[in-house]
Amino acid sequence: MEHQTTGEDRVRMVSRQLSEPQTANWIASEAGWSHEPTKRVLERLVDDGILHRDKSGTHTTYYPDYRRQAIQEAIQLRDSGHTVEELTDRLAEMKTQIRDWEDEFDVESPNQLRGTLADESLDADESLDADEEDRRREIAREWEHLQRRIQIVGFAIREWDFLAPTTEPVKSSS
């Protein structure tokens, strides 16, 4: 990634992909760029309304406008060449996968699945091996990802006609 893009490009890419608020140091590290120029880029992105800044904690964090991200992803889905039927099938597959995990682990959420790591490690007879713990952590992360995707794909399906590309400019009513 570093050889094909500028530091600013990498900061923009990393910041757009954030799923939770992160510090400038974290973003700089992920982008492979130094702190000060990263912070300048982040501040410009805040000024442009692309990122939000939160100063309420011990460290200032930055995060994207998740609504804008979701709408952009829904538009990309609409423009991807997939049919609404294909997206509906994908939505059903994601929901089935989550139901399978609920049944397999007898839990209702990713955090309940994470909780099984603590529950079963307390009982020496039923403790999990490291591979199973890693598997459950990965499934919990994938589960959260699928929950976000279900919301976006569902929105794209519900708003299929609205999200269609238009060839006519929108006229303002003055």
UniProtKB/TrEMBL annotation:
Its ancestry begins with: Archaea, Methanobacteriati, Methanobacteriota, Stenosarchaea group, Halobacteria
Top-level taxonomic group: Archaea
Instruction: Name the segments for region: Disordered.
Output: 1-21, 109-133
Basic and acidic residues bias spans: 1-12
**InterPro entries under this entry?**
DUF7342, WH-like_DNA-bd_sf, WH_DNA-bd_sf
The name this protein carries in UniProt is: Mnd1 family protein
Q: Where is the composition biased (Acidic residues)?
A: 120-132
Gene3D superfamilies with a match to the protein in the record: Winged helix-like DNA-binding domain superfamily/Winged helix DNA-binding domain (1.10.10.10)
Q: Please give the SUPFAM superfamilies that the UniProt record associates with this protein.
A: Winged helix' DNA-binding domain
